[in-house]
Design a protein that fits this description.
Blueprint (H helix, E strand, L loop, with lengths): L11 H23 L1 H14 L10
Length: 59
Amino acid sequence: MMTVRRTRKGTTAQRVVTAEIAVVGALVLALVVSQMPSLVRELKIWRIAGGLRPGNRYP
């Protein structure tokens, strides 16, 4: 009699967790991409204002 060996590539719980991580990662990436113009604008304003050390720009 032949026995069939089955290989398991992960339990159902591991697959669910992997799928959840993929969904959360995609949502975070979509949020960052959608906010990119605002972030670029804020960085420009920050650089104009002097960055970390404004020095004597403002009394």
